[in-house]
Specification:
156 residues, alpha/beta, Rossmann fold, 8 helices
Length: 156
């Protein structure tokens, strides 16, 4: 079953034709939208006029990444970043994780690909056609390219 926000992203794409890009963002990209990192400005510009999708895995990954970053850099405003993460998650089209998707992710033959990365790759394939799979993880991007996805990492 596809979530309401993912259906909205697809219908927006259909209604706006090829002028609106559809981008799958993994957690490495989504975190750059929440806090300022060297690639953040370029990524924000890149996705500004597009629809963004991901999978429900981000419901765990984003808050965990923010909490890790805040523990390493106590000056980061944890409450503000968590609020931004909640707003971003509400704005994304999120593909649900189901048994079939998880089984497919487990079946990827690339031995070096981490579990969560394989879930993102399979989720992006399920959402296709996409204009780009956006990730700052080269190993994951390589697996996405092998799966037939166009990959981008703005300003990387």
């Amino acid at each position: 079953m596809v979530t309401h926000t993912l259906l909205a992203a697809r219908s927006t794409r259909s209604a706006a034709s090829a002028e609106v890009g559809l981008f799958y963002l993994d957690a490495s990209a989504l975190v750059k939208l929440l806090r300022d990192e060297p690639e953040s400005a370029a990524l924000r510009t890149f996705v500004a006029d597009g629809d963004m999708v991901s999978c429900e895995l981000c419901l765990v990954e984003l808050p965990r990444a923010i909490r890790r970053a805040s523990a390493q850099e106590p000056r980061l405003p944890l409450d503000i970043l968590l609020a931004r993460a909640s707003e971003l998650l509400d704005a994304l089209g999120l593909l649900p994780l189901d048994r079939g998707l998880l089984s497919s992710a487990g079946a990827i033959t690339e031995p070096a690909l981490r579990s969560l990365d394989s879930i993102h790759v399979i989720a992006a394939v399920a959402v296709s056609p996409l204009d780009a799979f956006v990730s700052y993880d080269e190993r994951q991007s390589a697996a996405a390219r092998l799966a037939g996805l166009r990959t981008l990492a703005p300003a990387a």
